[in-house]
Write a structure and sequence with these properties.
2 copies of one chain form a homodimer. The first copy, chain A, has 176 residues and is mostly helical. The first copy, chain A, has 7 helices and 4 strands. In chain A, α1 crosses α4. At the A-B interface, α1, α4, β4, α5 and α6 of A face α1, α4, β4, α5 and α6 of B. β4 of chain A pairs antiparallel with β4 of chain B. The structure holds a DNA duplex (28 and 28 nucleotides).
Chain lengths: 176, 176
DNA sequence: ACGGGCATGTAAGCGGTTACATGATTCG
DNA sequence: CGAATCATGTAACCGCTTACATGCCCGT
Protein backbone atom coordinates (compact mmCIF):
# COMPACT_ATOMS: atom_id res chain seq x y z
CA UNK A 1 0.00 0.00 0.00
CA UNK A 2 2.89 2.41 0.63
CA UNK A 3 3.45 2.91 -3.08
CA UNK A 4 -0.02 4.40 -3.42
CA UNK A 5 0.62 6.89 -0.64
CA UNK A 6 4.00 7.74 -2.06
CA UNK A 7 2.33 8.63 -5.36
CA UNK A 8 -0.40 10.63 -3.61
CA UNK A 9 2.27 12.45 -1.61
CA UNK A 10 4.14 13.46 -4.74
CA UNK A 11 0.91 14.51 -6.44
CA UNK A 12 -0.06 16.60 -3.40
CA UNK A 13 2.84 18.90 -4.28
CA UNK A 14 1.96 19.30 -7.93
CA UNK A 15 0.32 17.43 -10.84
CA UNK A 16 2.62 15.05 -12.70
CA UNK A 17 2.70 12.34 -15.35
CA UNK A 18 3.37 8.68 -14.62
CA UNK A 19 6.74 9.10 -16.23
CA UNK A 20 7.67 12.06 -14.02
CA UNK A 21 6.49 10.20 -10.92
CA UNK A 22 8.58 7.25 -11.99
CA UNK A 23 11.65 9.50 -12.26
CA UNK A 24 11.04 10.92 -8.81
CA UNK A 25 10.79 7.45 -7.32
CA UNK A 26 14.04 6.49 -8.99
CA UNK A 27 15.90 9.64 -7.93
CA UNK A 28 14.39 10.45 -4.55
CA UNK A 29 11.90 8.13 -2.86
CA UNK A 30 13.48 4.99 -4.27
CA UNK A 31 16.18 5.00 -1.58
CA UNK A 32 13.57 4.09 1.05
CA UNK A 33 10.83 2.74 -1.22
CA UNK A 34 11.80 1.43 -4.67
CA UNK A 35 9.17 1.26 -7.40
CA UNK A 36 9.48 0.25 -11.05
CA UNK A 37 7.59 1.97 -13.84
CA UNK A 38 5.10 -0.85 -14.63
CA UNK A 39 4.14 -0.86 -10.97
CA UNK A 40 3.56 2.90 -11.00
CA UNK A 41 1.47 2.92 -14.18
CA UNK A 42 -0.63 0.05 -12.82
CA UNK A 43 -1.14 1.80 -9.47
CA UNK A 44 -2.14 5.07 -11.15
CA UNK A 45 -4.77 3.32 -13.28
CA UNK A 46 -6.09 1.58 -10.21
CA UNK A 47 -6.25 4.82 -8.23
CA UNK A 48 -7.97 6.49 -11.15
CA UNK A 49 -10.73 3.89 -10.86
CA UNK A 50 -11.02 4.58 -7.14
CA UNK A 51 -11.26 8.34 -7.63
CA UNK A 52 -8.07 9.15 -5.70
CA UNK A 53 -6.47 10.80 -8.74
CA UNK A 54 -7.77 12.38 -11.96
CA UNK A 55 -6.33 13.04 -15.39
CA UNK A 56 -5.90 16.79 -15.58
CA UNK A 57 -4.96 16.82 -19.24
CA UNK A 58 -3.13 14.78 -21.85
CA UNK A 59 -0.10 16.10 -23.71
CA UNK A 60 2.36 15.17 -26.42
CA UNK A 61 3.40 11.51 -26.87
CA UNK A 62 0.31 10.23 -25.07
CA UNK A 63 1.43 11.92 -21.86
CA UNK A 64 -1.17 11.90 -19.08
CA UNK A 65 -0.88 14.45 -16.31
CA UNK A 66 -2.49 13.32 -13.05
CA UNK A 67 -3.89 15.49 -10.24
CA UNK A 68 -4.80 14.39 -6.73
CA UNK A 69 -8.55 14.59 -5.96
CA UNK A 70 -10.06 15.72 -2.62
CA UNK A 71 -10.67 12.01 -1.86
CA UNK A 72 -7.00 11.36 -2.60
CA UNK A 73 -5.89 14.17 -0.29
CA UNK A 74 -8.15 12.82 2.44
CA UNK A 75 -6.72 9.30 2.03
CA UNK A 76 -3.16 10.65 2.20
CA UNK A 77 -3.84 12.71 5.34
CA UNK A 78 -5.59 9.77 6.99
CA UNK A 79 -2.61 7.53 6.31
CA UNK A 80 -0.07 10.08 7.51
CA UNK A 81 -1.87 10.95 10.74
CA UNK A 82 -3.60 7.71 11.69
CA UNK A 83 -2.30 4.85 9.56
CA UNK A 84 -0.36 2.24 11.56
CA UNK A 85 3.40 2.68 11.05
CA UNK A 86 5.30 -0.35 9.77
CA UNK A 87 8.69 -0.04 11.48
CA UNK A 88 10.43 -2.74 9.46
CA UNK A 89 13.82 -1.53 8.27
CA UNK A 90 14.49 -4.10 5.55
CA UNK A 91 18.16 -4.33 4.62
CA UNK A 92 19.99 -7.04 2.75
CA UNK A 93 23.27 -5.44 3.76
CA UNK A 94 22.48 -5.84 7.46
CA UNK A 95 21.14 -9.36 6.99
CA UNK A 96 24.63 -10.32 5.85
CA UNK A 97 26.14 -9.11 9.12
CA UNK A 98 24.46 -11.96 11.00
CA UNK A 99 26.63 -14.38 9.05
CA UNK A 100 30.00 -12.64 9.03
CA UNK A 101 31.42 -15.62 10.91
CA UNK A 102 30.89 -17.68 7.75
CA UNK A 103 33.25 -15.50 5.68
CA UNK A 104 36.96 -15.94 5.57
CA UNK A 105 38.73 -12.98 7.23
CA UNK A 106 40.18 -11.56 4.02
CA UNK A 107 36.80 -11.55 2.27
CA UNK A 108 35.18 -9.95 5.31
CA UNK A 109 37.86 -7.26 5.42
CA UNK A 110 37.29 -6.48 1.75
CA UNK A 111 33.53 -6.50 2.21
CA UNK A 112 33.63 -4.10 5.16
CA UNK A 113 35.93 -1.72 3.34
CA UNK A 114 33.61 -1.64 0.33
CA UNK A 115 30.67 -1.00 2.65
CA UNK A 116 32.50 1.82 4.43
CA UNK A 117 33.29 3.44 1.07
CA UNK A 118 29.70 3.10 -0.06
CA UNK A 119 28.26 4.55 3.13
CA UNK A 120 30.78 7.42 3.08
CA UNK A 121 29.71 8.33 -0.44
CA UNK A 122 26.08 8.38 0.61
CA UNK A 123 26.88 10.61 3.60
CA UNK A 124 28.71 13.04 1.33
CA UNK A 125 25.83 13.06 -1.16
CA UNK A 126 23.17 13.78 1.45
CA UNK A 127 25.33 16.41 3.11
CA UNK A 128 25.55 18.22 -0.23
CA UNK A 129 21.75 18.06 -0.58
CA UNK A 130 21.33 19.33 2.99
CA UNK A 131 23.70 22.24 2.42
CA UNK A 132 21.94 23.20 -0.81
CA UNK A 133 18.62 23.28 1.00
CA UNK A 134 20.08 25.23 3.93
CA UNK A 135 21.42 27.83 1.49
CA UNK A 136 17.88 28.13 0.16
CA UNK A 137 18.71 26.79 -3.31
CA UNK A 138 15.31 25.13 -3.45
CA UNK A 139 13.27 27.88 -1.79
CA UNK A 140 11.87 27.95 1.73
CA UNK A 141 8.49 26.28 1.36
CA UNK A 142 6.96 23.75 3.75
CA UNK A 143 7.64 21.15 1.06
CA UNK A 144 11.36 21.96 1.04
CA UNK A 145 11.40 21.73 4.85
CA UNK A 146 9.97 18.19 4.59
CA UNK A 147 12.63 17.19 2.11
CA UNK A 148 15.28 18.76 4.37
CA UNK A 149 14.09 16.52 7.19
CA UNK A 150 14.10 13.44 4.97
CA UNK A 151 17.63 14.24 3.78
CA UNK A 152 18.76 14.63 7.40
CA UNK A 153 17.66 11.06 8.07
CA UNK A 154 19.91 9.96 5.21
CA UNK A 155 22.90 11.85 6.60
CA UNK A 156 22.42 10.41 10.08
CA UNK A 157 21.59 6.84 9.05
CA UNK A 158 24.49 6.48 6.65
CA UNK A 159 26.88 8.12 9.11
CA UNK A 160 25.76 5.57 11.70
CA UNK A 161 26.23 2.73 9.21
CA UNK A 162 29.66 3.94 8.18
CA UNK A 163 30.83 4.19 11.79
CA UNK A 164 29.30 0.80 12.50
CA UNK A 165 31.23 -0.84 9.67
CA UNK A 166 34.45 0.78 10.92
CA UNK A 167 33.71 -0.43 14.43
CA UNK A 168 33.01 -3.93 13.07
CA UNK A 169 36.40 -3.99 11.36
CA UNK A 170 38.18 -3.07 14.61
CA UNK A 171 36.03 -5.49 16.62
CA UNK A 172 37.01 -8.41 14.39
CA UNK A 173 40.69 -7.47 14.51
CA UNK A 174 41.12 -7.55 18.26
CA UNK A 175 38.53 -10.11 19.33
CA UNK A 176 38.51 -12.64 16.49
CA UNK B 1 16.73 -14.56 -2.89
CA UNK B 2 17.85 -13.19 0.49
CA UNK B 3 15.48 -15.47 2.37
CA UNK B 4 17.29 -18.51 1.01
CA UNK B 5 20.64 -17.23 2.21
CA UNK B 6 19.16 -16.30 5.56
CA UNK B 7 18.03 -19.89 5.98
CA UNK B 8 21.37 -21.27 4.83
CA UNK B 9 23.11 -18.92 7.26
CA UNK B 10 21.06 -20.17 10.19
CA UNK B 11 21.58 -23.79 9.14
CA UNK B 12 25.34 -23.20 8.88
CA UNK B 13 25.36 -22.77 12.65
CA UNK B 14 23.39 -25.92 13.43
CA UNK B 15 20.67 -28.19 11.97
CA UNK B 16 17.13 -27.00 12.61
CA UNK B 17 13.51 -27.66 11.72
CA UNK B 18 11.38 -25.35 9.59
CA UNK B 19 9.50 -24.39 12.72
CA UNK B 20 12.68 -23.46 14.61
CA UNK B 21 13.96 -21.46 11.62
CA UNK B 22 10.64 -19.69 11.48
CA UNK B 23 10.97 -18.75 15.16
CA UNK B 24 14.45 -17.41 14.59
CA UNK B 25 13.27 -15.26 11.72
CA UNK B 26 10.47 -13.88 13.86
CA UNK B 27 12.70 -13.17 16.87
CA UNK B 28 16.01 -12.23 15.31
CA UNK B 29 16.43 -11.85 11.53
CA UNK B 30 12.89 -10.55 11.05
CA UNK B 31 13.92 -7.04 12.08
CA UNK B 32 15.93 -6.65 8.87
CA UNK B 33 14.35 -9.41 6.78
CA UNK B 34 10.80 -10.54 7.69
CA UNK B 35 9.64 -13.99 6.59
CA UNK B 36 6.38 -15.81 7.28
CA UNK B 37 6.20 -19.54 7.94
CA UNK B 38 4.58 -20.60 4.62
CA UNK B 39 7.38 -18.80 2.82
CA UNK B 40 10.01 -20.61 4.88
CA UNK B 41 8.49 -24.08 4.40
CA UNK B 42 8.19 -23.45 0.66
CA UNK B 43 11.79 -22.24 0.41
CA UNK B 44 13.11 -25.25 2.34
CA UNK B 45 11.30 -27.68 0.05
CA UNK B 46 12.68 -25.85 -2.96
CA UNK B 47 16.21 -25.87 -1.57
CA UNK B 48 15.85 -29.57 -0.79
CA UNK B 49 15.18 -30.16 -4.50
CA UNK B 50 18.27 -28.16 -5.37
CA UNK B 51 20.47 -30.08 -2.97
CA UNK B 52 21.36 -27.06 -0.82
CA UNK B 53 19.87 -28.66 2.29
CA UNK B 54 19.10 -32.22 3.39
CA UNK B 55 16.76 -33.81 5.88
CA UNK B 56 18.95 -35.09 8.68
CA UNK B 57 16.17 -36.91 10.48
CA UNK B 58 12.47 -36.66 11.25
CA UNK B 59 11.12 -36.45 14.78
CA UNK B 60 7.89 -36.28 16.71
CA UNK B 61 4.85 -34.47 15.22
CA UNK B 62 6.19 -34.81 11.69
CA UNK B 63 9.20 -32.64 12.57
CA UNK B 64 11.87 -32.47 9.88
CA UNK B 65 15.36 -31.43 10.88
CA UNK B 66 17.35 -29.88 8.02
CA UNK B 67 21.12 -29.77 7.59
CA UNK B 68 23.07 -27.63 5.16
CA UNK B 69 24.92 -29.62 2.45
CA UNK B 70 28.40 -28.82 1.09
CA UNK B 71 26.67 -27.30 -1.97
CA UNK B 72 24.60 -25.15 0.40
CA UNK B 73 27.68 -23.98 2.29
CA UNK B 74 29.37 -23.15 -1.00
CA UNK B 75 26.33 -21.15 -2.17
CA UNK B 76 26.23 -19.24 1.13
CA UNK B 77 29.95 -18.40 1.05
CA UNK B 78 29.69 -17.34 -2.60
CA UNK B 79 26.82 -15.00 -1.77
CA UNK B 80 28.55 -13.53 1.28
CA UNK B 81 31.88 -12.91 -0.40
CA UNK B 82 30.95 -12.16 -3.99
CA UNK B 83 27.19 -11.63 -4.28
CA UNK B 84 26.26 -8.06 -5.27
CA UNK B 85 25.03 -6.12 -2.22
CA UNK B 86 21.59 -4.57 -2.48
CA UNK B 87 21.91 -1.37 -0.45
CA UNK B 88 18.22 -0.53 -0.37
CA UNK B 89 17.12 0.41 3.15
CA UNK B 90 13.38 0.04 2.75
CA UNK B 91 11.44 1.92 5.41
CA UNK B 92 7.82 2.94 5.45
CA UNK B 93 8.53 5.14 8.45
CA UNK B 94 11.08 7.18 6.50
CA UNK B 95 8.88 7.33 3.41
CA UNK B 96 6.40 9.26 5.53
CA UNK B 97 8.98 11.91 6.36
CA UNK B 98 8.95 13.10 2.75
CA UNK B 99 5.35 14.20 3.24
CA UNK B 100 5.43 15.74 6.72
CA UNK B 101 4.35 19.04 5.15
CA UNK B 102 0.99 17.41 4.41
CA UNK B 103 0.24 16.78 8.11
CA UNK B 104 -1.25 19.31 10.42
CA UNK B 105 1.28 20.43 13.05
CA UNK B 106 -0.49 18.75 16.00
CA UNK B 107 -0.64 15.38 14.21
CA UNK B 108 2.99 15.68 13.20
CA UNK B 109 4.00 16.49 16.79
CA UNK B 110 2.15 13.42 18.04
CA UNK B 111 3.60 11.28 15.30
CA UNK B 112 7.18 12.34 16.02
CA UNK B 113 6.76 11.75 19.75
CA UNK B 114 5.46 8.23 19.11
CA UNK B 115 8.39 7.57 16.79
CA UNK B 116 10.89 8.85 19.37
CA UNK B 117 9.38 6.56 22.01
CA UNK B 118 9.48 3.59 19.65
CA UNK B 119 13.10 4.18 18.62
CA UNK B 120 14.16 4.70 22.25
CA UNK B 121 12.65 1.35 23.21
CA UNK B 122 14.54 -0.36 20.42
CA UNK B 123 17.80 1.27 21.50
CA UNK B 124 17.26 0.05 25.06
CA UNK B 125 16.46 -3.47 23.83
CA UNK B 126 19.54 -3.79 21.66
CA UNK B 127 21.76 -2.30 24.37
CA UNK B 128 20.56 -5.04 26.72
CA UNK B 129 21.39 -7.68 24.10
CA UNK B 130 24.82 -6.11 23.54
CA UNK B 131 25.60 -6.05 27.26
CA UNK B 132 24.54 -9.67 27.64
CA UNK B 133 26.87 -10.68 24.85
CA UNK B 134 29.72 -8.56 26.23
CA UNK B 135 29.32 -10.29 29.62
CA UNK B 136 29.71 -13.58 27.77
CA UNK B 137 26.17 -14.82 28.53
CA UNK B 138 26.06 -16.46 25.11
CA UNK B 139 29.62 -17.76 25.00
CA UNK B 140 32.54 -16.39 23.00
CA UNK B 141 32.24 -18.21 19.68
CA UNK B 142 32.72 -16.66 16.23
CA UNK B 143 28.96 -16.99 15.83
CA UNK B 144 28.32 -14.88 18.95
CA UNK B 145 30.76 -12.28 17.66
CA UNK B 146 28.72 -12.02 14.44
CA UNK B 147 25.53 -11.53 16.40
CA UNK B 148 27.28 -8.93 18.56
CA UNK B 149 28.14 -7.00 15.40
CA UNK B 150 24.57 -7.27 14.09
CA UNK B 151 23.19 -6.05 17.42
CA UNK B 152 25.58 -3.10 17.34
CA UNK B 153 24.05 -2.00 14.03
CA UNK B 154 20.66 -1.99 15.76
CA UNK B 155 21.93 0.15 18.62
CA UNK B 156 23.53 2.66 16.28
CA UNK B 157 20.74 2.81 13.69
CA UNK B 158 17.95 3.27 16.20
CA UNK B 159 19.99 5.81 18.17
CA UNK B 160 20.45 7.75 14.94
CA UNK B 161 16.74 7.52 14.16
CA UNK B 162 15.76 8.63 17.64
CA UNK B 163 18.05 11.64 17.49
CA UNK B 164 16.82 12.39 13.99
CA UNK B 165 13.17 12.45 15.13
CA UNK B 166 14.11 14.75 18.03
CA UNK B 167 15.98 17.01 15.64
CA UNK B 168 12.97 17.03 13.28
CA UNK B 169 10.70 18.14 16.12
CA UNK B 170 12.99 21.07 16.94
CA UNK B 171 13.48 21.88 13.25
CA UNK B 172 9.74 22.21 12.71
CA UNK B 173 9.31 24.34 15.82
CA UNK B 174 11.71 27.09 14.89
CA UNK B 175 11.58 27.07 11.12
CA UNK B 176 7.93 26.22 10.37
C1' DA C 1 -10.64 -33.69 28.73
C1' DC C 2 -8.98 -29.68 26.60
C1' DG C 3 -6.21 -25.74 25.65
C1' DG C 4 -1.93 -24.16 24.02
C1' DG C 5 2.15 -24.65 21.71
C1' DC C 6 4.61 -27.66 18.27
C1' DA C 7 4.84 -28.71 13.48
C1' DT C 8 3.85 -28.76 8.56
C1' DG C 9 1.65 -27.59 4.88
C1' DT C 10 -1.96 -25.67 0.71
C1' DA C 11 -4.43 -21.98 -1.87
C1' DA C 12 -5.82 -17.52 -3.22
C1' DG C 13 -4.41 -13.28 -4.12
C1' DC C 14 -1.62 -9.14 -4.06
C1' DG C 15 2.85 -6.77 -4.66
C1' DG C 16 6.73 -6.30 -7.43
C1' DT C 17 10.35 -7.40 -11.11
C1' DT C 18 11.89 -8.30 -15.73
C1' DA C 19 11.28 -8.66 -20.38
C1' DC C 20 8.75 -7.36 -24.19
C1' DA C 21 6.36 -4.01 -27.12
C1' DT C 22 5.24 0.34 -29.23
C1' DG C 23 5.55 4.84 -30.81
C1' DA C 24 6.55 10.09 -30.58
C1' DT C 25 9.84 13.72 -30.07
C1' DT C 26 14.13 16.05 -29.59
C1' DC C 27 18.93 16.86 -30.41
C1' DG C 28 23.14 16.49 -32.72
C1' DC D 1 18.99 10.47 -40.29
C1' DG D 2 19.94 8.10 -36.21
C1' DA D 3 20.37 7.81 -31.19
C1' DA D 4 18.72 9.05 -26.90
C1' DT D 5 14.99 10.22 -24.21
C1' DC D 6 10.10 10.76 -23.44
C1' DA D 7 6.03 8.14 -22.53
C1' DT D 8 2.82 4.32 -21.68
C1' DG D 9 1.66 0.04 -21.35
C1' DT D 10 1.14 -5.75 -21.31
C1' DA D 11 2.52 -10.46 -19.84
C1' DA D 12 4.94 -13.85 -17.38
C1' DC D 13 6.75 -14.89 -13.38
C1' DC D 14 8.38 -14.80 -8.65
C1' DG D 15 8.08 -13.24 -3.73
C1' DC D 16 5.29 -12.75 -0.04
C1' DT D 17 1.01 -12.41 2.93
C1' DT D 18 -3.24 -14.09 4.80
C1' DA D 19 -6.43 -17.43 5.57
C1' DC D 20 -7.38 -22.06 5.81
C1' DA D 21 -6.39 -26.87 7.19
C1' DT D 22 -4.57 -30.68 9.80
C1' DG D 23 -2.80 -33.26 13.49
C1' DC D 24 0.35 -34.36 17.48
C1' DC D 25 2.10 -33.80 22.06
C1' DC D 26 2.37 -31.84 26.71
C1' DG D 27 0.81 -29.88 30.86
C1' DT D 28 -3.09 -28.91 33.99
Amino acid sequence: MSLRYGLLGLLSEKPASGYALSQQFQDVLGVVWPASHPQIYTALNHMLGEGLVEIQHTGARGKKVYTITPAGTAALRQWLAHGPVDHTLRSESLLRSFFFDQMDPADLERHLEAEIAFFAERVALYKRYAEAKDRGDHGRSARTASLRIAVESGVRLYTALQEWAQWAKRYRNHSG
